[in-house]
Amino acid sequence: MKRKLKINVFAGIFDIINAFLIMISWAVVLFAAVGEAVSNGDGHITGGVGGFFYFMVAIGLILHIIGLVKSKKSGISIVGHVLGIIGCACFIITMVLALPAFVLVLLAAIFTLLQKNIKEA
Question: Does the CA dihedral 97-100-102-105 come out positive or negative?
Fold first, then answer.
């Protein structure tokens, strides 16, 4: 009997959203910084925009940690969660790693949504 966990479905869908956000993060932060420089701003807008991306990825990281624990207990493959944790951590460490984070989070979404059962050896 194949078992599916709702946390895995939610984490997979959230990964797709995060992959899109990671993909556009550089452009959005750059446009916010340029707009703020032109209007002689003090950096609050750019910091807020960057903070939003970090917040969303941090939520994804928490979902993957919870999903990893629950999947391991249920005998479901944890590959997607491990990839998601690494991808989210790359982005949280520095936005410069947005490209590898994008690839890892996209792969994490695929593997997390598959929810393959671990074969007993």
Answer: negative
Distance of alpha carbon 21 from alpha carbon 24, whole angstroms:
5
How many domains, in total, are found in the chain? 1
Contact predicate 77/115, CB 8 Å: yes
Residue partners of 116: CB distance under 8 A and separation at least 6: 76, 77
* Tens-digit pLDDT profile for residues 78-118: 999 999 999 999 999 988 899 999 999 999 999 999 988 88
Structure tokens at 70: 């629950």
Neighbours of 24 (CB within 10 A): 12
Is position 118 within any domain?
no
- Among residues 81, 70, 80, the alpha carbon closest in space to that of 4 is found at 70
Judge whether 25 lies within some domain: yes
2-42 pLDDT, tens digit per residue, is 678 999 999 999 999 999 999 999 899 888 888 888 888 77
* Structural domain boundaries, residue 91: 6-113
User: What is the phi/psi pair of residue 34, to 5°?
Assistant: -65, -45
